[in-house]
Structure of DUF1776-domain-containing protein:
Amino acid sequence: MTSDDQFFFDYLASIPHDVRRYSLEVADSIDRQVDHAAAVVRETLSQQSWLPSSIRPSPRTCGQVGPSSRSRDFGDRVYEWILRNRAWTAAIFAFFGTTCVLYYGGKKLHGKRRKARKAGNGARKEIVVIAGSPHEPMTRSIATDLERRGYIVYVIVSSVEEEHMVQAENRADIRPLWLDLTQTPSPSEIHPSLLGIRSLITQAQSPMPGVPPHICQLSGLVIIPSAHYAAGPVATVPASSWADAVNTRILSPILTTQLFLPLLTLRSSSSSIVVAYPSISSSLAAPFAGPEVATARALSGFAASLRRELRLVQQGNVSVVEVRLGNVDLGAQYRPLQNQVAGTEVLAWSTQQRALYGAQYLSSIEQRPVASAGPQSVRGSSARTLHYAIFDALEPPAKNLFGRKKAKQAVLYVGTGSRTYSLIGQWVPDGLVGWMLGRHRVNGESDGSWERV
């Protein structure tokens, strides 16, 4: 390095910093002016038609340069931050993803508007028939809820007392329906008691003068057998109890379904057959519950067979849904005031039967996983879960992305213990299930423990 060069660098180092800053700003200003002039020339040339298209520049506005560069700079900074903080990035994405899933999923499941569809004139058009005794709290609870959601509800009655109970609800759209199952028409005919409903779903109905008429729709049949069964060893259950279980809880639902099938398949609109029954004892094949287990399994087999049979029909518009019930608390207004003390039926047995079954039977009552002492001692899930399940079983099936109808869920578990005991009965070994039901409580000898009653 010569002395002149050294002198030049020393001179540069002596320039104040503010002068250097000013010079840099001037240089940047000159660069911007040159870029602006180049952009103007480029824009002018791009608009000249006399230039060949091969050499004509594409139009470009100078206003696009600043924001795009700034956005690219921001995106680069975000990307670099993500690479440096991968753990924080994963935690943030997991938090927001979980929040969105819980919010929108809960809103979709629990915020669903469960209302019956109405006719174009605003009148009710969907009809539901409930085949259950009005004496049963579950029948009255379901009928009241469906009427509140916009259905026209018919409750099957077989006596004047039951008709008065339905009329005592004092609701215009909860109506009694007399149905004599002993009067069975030919398969090609409609039962005389169902001609009124047939008229509603085939002929236009006008709610009042001046209102356009509409045609009603039979949306479903809800079968609710009585939940009260004779309990005890098979040897002690009288023949009348077996006959009552078979006739009123198995044969009656089957005949009722048979009578309504011509109406359910009369039109192409979708409808449902809902069969609700207690499932805990039948899932575990509980001892001393022969009538209940036989009834529940018979109804389940009938529903499964009917479901496959209706799927073979070309329209396929009738769905069969089983509602397997656990413990459901219908509310204080449906709870009985007094309940029979569990185990007192042992006193009606013979001496030999008490000696043979007494100890084991009383032990099974203590370990029974159902409300053996009545709803006053065992609380189940809210009645709202039952009402939601019945409504979901009645509503038309949803459609997939391709517009095709989805198959409804064949089995719905409602109430505390319904699904749990179903899994236990399917997968847990029989010996362990027997231990749960109280098999280990006694030694098998007659020790007079039944006298505790």
